Amino acid sequence: MVDHQFADAGLAELYDAQHPWESRGDYAFYSGLVMAAESVLDVGCGTGTLLHAARAAGHAGRLCGLDPAAGMIERARKRTDVEWLLGDLTTVHLDREFDLIVMAGHAFQVFVTDDELRTSLASIRSALTENGRFAFETRNPAARAWERWTPDNVSEFVDACGNTVRSWHEVETPLEDDLVSFTTTYTSPAWDRPQESQSTLRFLDAAALSTFLAEVGFVVDEQFGDWDQSLLTETSPEIITLAGR
């Protein structure tokens, strides 16, 4: 997931090490869409991996990444032939500039209030060209992914310095409606102390999602339940949506 608490460049570096491009099914899905579009905005772009890969693969059009986390954008800017914007959908104003807008890495789930979600969706729609599309995913709440976010479920990886790092999530209980708040802890024998980030994500089901999209004028073109483009079902892990103006 893209954790927008990664304002620190060190935590952003850990995110890259833990989630390498080659291991992520969502990037294979989004890369095809990005390469087929003339102009692309990546909202919640994180460290810019998706747009870096697109430019390296020969994308010759406009590529722009937007993220509110300074640490993420700092790492994204190592590639200078892509536009990078530090901020969010309330601080930038774009009018029909992009053929495709994507939100990968479950970034869509950081919109935790109804007003924030409606405002953000309206801004995304305004930034699309007449025939533009918005592609994003959110975890299907029926799959209850957060139940596996426990200190017993530890992820281990190697950071850029060659240090072994262990990480785990700890969910705050009780849950608040469709919101899940949790702390991610990182430890390494090479460090003096652990590092932590805190996040809150919203889990919307397909019906609620469709209502919010329709309220601001989006029309759902396609929906999938996983990155192999399988049909969306009650038990699908993801709700992957492509919507148009």
Descriptors:
245 residues; alpha/beta; Rossmann fold; 2 domains; 7-stranded mixed sheet; 4-stranded antiparallel sheet; 6 helices; 11 strands; 25% helix; globular
CATH topology term of the largest domain: Rossmann fold
User: Helix share of residues?
Assistant: 10-25%
Determine the N-to-C terminus distance: 26 Å
Strand content: 25-35%
Number of beta-strand segments: 11
- The fourth-level CATH homologous superfamily of the largest domain is Vaccinia Virus protein VP39
Work out the count of structural domains: 2
Helix/strand class: alpha/beta
- Morphology: globular
Oligomer: single chain
Largest sheet: 7 strands, mixed
Average pLDDT confidence is: 93
Under CATH at level 1, the class of the largest domain stands as: Alpha Beta
Radius of gyration: 18 Å
CATH architecture of the largest domain: 3-Layer(aba) Sandwich
| Count of individual helical segments | 6
Trace the largest sheet across and list its strands. Answer: 3-2-1-4-5-11-10
Order of helices and strands: HHEHEHEEHEEEEEHEE
Poorly predicted tracts of residues? 1-7
Structural commentary:
- The protein is an alpha/beta fold and 245 residues long.
- It has 2 domains: 9-140 and 203-244, 3-Layer(aba) Sandwich (Rossmann fold), CATH 3.40.50; 142-201.
- The chain has helices at 9-18, 25-36, 49-56, 70-76, 114-127, 206-215, and strands at residues 39-43, 62-67, 83-86, 98-103, 128-139, 155-158, 164-171, 179-187, 195-202, 219-224, 238-244.
- A hairpin with a 5-residue loop joins strand 6 (155-158) and strand 7 (164-171).
- The two termini are 26 Å apart.
- The model is unreliable at 1-7 (pLDDT under 50).
